[in-house]
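ok, trying the design again with the full structure, not the truncated one.
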């Protein structure tokens, strides 16, 4: 009976999706697939996984496969490659149906959806669609602020102040009846700090070191919710090039410029792939990328150095946009510090561990669930760079709002939500790089 149900439902799906608007009413393929699969799941028994074997070698699977290839314009070089892709497609379809069945039972907070990555295994997906290099190289120590000559100026200021105070103290002692001068060690005017001391505002509660020269009024206060999407450029697709580091950092800087200056800019990801001291399409580092942009005084506009989804010969011009005065990063695992930095400076370049849930993430879209990725036991070994653009609370659950680089057709129009304050869910609290503009 279940076999007949599956066959009937998927054949119906194939018949409905004929690229004819009369049958689909202009609806996208994904909506039709979601609807028919959900109807099928509503009638299935709890022994779902064993019943999914009917998809193997069935005419239903082949018809759905043809529809999938046509919709996503998939072409394969050899029959052997197509056979391999078909096997991965069926495995992924089974996984999606199984996980969405758990969602309908209230065991999962978000749904999965079949998308352009449906013919890729998770290992292959990680290899081609991520691109953050392993920890330990190219990253700055957590909490460090990098700004040209900042540390030197601070040290010189402290030493000069200390020497002046010593001289004044000696002079006060040698002059009977002399009152302590306004600059002596016994008097501190508002806003002045003795050597070696920094007020609480210098080191916010989250542990993020903020340079006082660039700190803005009210920066130590955080909002209940933040959403910077209106300041962001449209979501882009990195393609099968491990350049997520370039997309994450440029999006964060673009958003910060729009937020702080009101100016819209679009930085060249291709310049970072071709010219920065990273590994092109084989991955890169967030700290190294910020360093390169700062030292170069910005990047070329995307319009003069467009993205090509592959590494090419470095080709630079003199035109530059998006300069930054410096950058910093939050303490590892400190989500309160990330919240502070996000409120103070703007979007953060961060990282996450990719899973099959992220590969096929689709939110809830039904009023049930929360759209928030919350995976028990999710690894914190990050491998994919993203941009954190907000945070909030939904139905009592704290979340981060994250921008991805897999196109606007993925997830929630290119974005996703992930649990906040849950022990750095999937490693989301590992990095929080912000720009100072």
């Amino acid at each position: 009976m279940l076999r007949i149900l599956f066959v009937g439902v998927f054949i119906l799906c194939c018949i409905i999706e004929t690229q004819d608007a009369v049958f689909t009413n202009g609806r996208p393929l994904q909506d039709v697939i979601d609807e028919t699969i959900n109807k099928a799941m509503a009638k299935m028994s709890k022994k779902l996984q064993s019943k999914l074997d009917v998809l193997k070698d069935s005419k239903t699977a082949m018809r759905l496969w043809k529809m999938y290839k046509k919709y996503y314009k998939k072409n394969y070089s050899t029959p052997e490659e197509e056979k391999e892709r078909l096997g991965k497609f069926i495995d992924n379809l089974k996984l999606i149906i199984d996980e969405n069945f758990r969602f309908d039972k209230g065991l999962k907070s978000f749904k999965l959806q079949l998308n352009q990555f449906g013919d890729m295994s998770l290992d292959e997906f990680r290899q081609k669609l991520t691109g953050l290099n392993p920890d330990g190289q190219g990253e700055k120590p957590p909490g460090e602020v990098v700004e040209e000559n900042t540390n030197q100026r601070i040290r010189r200021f402290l030493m000069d102040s200390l020497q002046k105070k010593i001289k004044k103290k000696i002079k006060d002692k040698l002059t009977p009846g002399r009152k302590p001068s306004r600059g002596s060690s016994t008097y501190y005017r508002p806003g002045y700090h003795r050597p070696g001391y920094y007020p609480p505002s210098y080191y916010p509660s989250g542990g993020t070191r903020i340079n006082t020269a660039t700190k803005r009024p009210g920066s130590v206060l955080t909002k209940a919710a933040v959403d910077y999407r209106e300041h962001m450029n449209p979501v882009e697709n990195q393609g099968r090039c491990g350049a997520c580091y370039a997309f994450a950092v440029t999006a964060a800087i673009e958003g910060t410029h729009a937020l702080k200056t009101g100016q819209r800019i679009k930085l060249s990801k291709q310049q970072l792939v071709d010219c920065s001291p990273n590994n092109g399409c084989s991955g890169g580092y967030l700290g190294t990328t910020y360093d390169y942009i700062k030292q170069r005084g910005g990047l070329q506009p995307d319009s003069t150095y467009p993205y090509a989804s592959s590494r090419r010969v470095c080709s630079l011009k003199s035109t530059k946009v998006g300069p930054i005065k410096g950058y910093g990063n939050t303490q590892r695992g400190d989500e309160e510090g990330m919240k502070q930095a996000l409120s103070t400076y703007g979007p953060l370049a961060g990282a996450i561990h990719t899973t099959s849930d992220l590969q096929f993430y689709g939110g809830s879209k039904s009023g049930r669930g929360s759209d928030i990725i919350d995976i028990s036991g999710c690894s914190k070994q990050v491998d994919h760079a993203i941009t954190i653009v907000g945070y909030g609370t939904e139905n009592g659950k704290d979340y981060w709002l994250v921008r991805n680089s897999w196109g606007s057709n993925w997830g929630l129009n290119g974005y996703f939500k992930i649990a906040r304050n849950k022990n750095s869910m999937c490693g989301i609290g590992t990095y929080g790089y912000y720009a100072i503009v």
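Keeping the full-length input from now on. The two ends are 64 Å apart (CA to CA).
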